[in-house]
# Entry
Amino acid sequence: MPSNTTTDGLPQGAITFRGRGLAVTDGRRLSLHVCPECSHKNDARAAEKGYCNWCAYVPSPADAVPVSGSR
# Structure
């Protein structure tokens, strides 16, 4: 598993993955707060790793969609 996920080509700010889960991109880092696969919430330390601490889901940039109203 990656120690962190980079965000090359992803929109910045709050994103979902095909309308599920919640992540925040800031520069080249992705923090996965709610997993789109298992719907569990990551704690702050796990979120910073960029993958789900519960089911090991690794976000796919192809599935990323900006959250409405997010910059």
Summary: The chain has a mean pLDDT of 87. DSSP finds one helix and four strands in the chain. Residues 14 and 68 are 9 Å apart (CA to CA). The chain has one domain: 13-66.
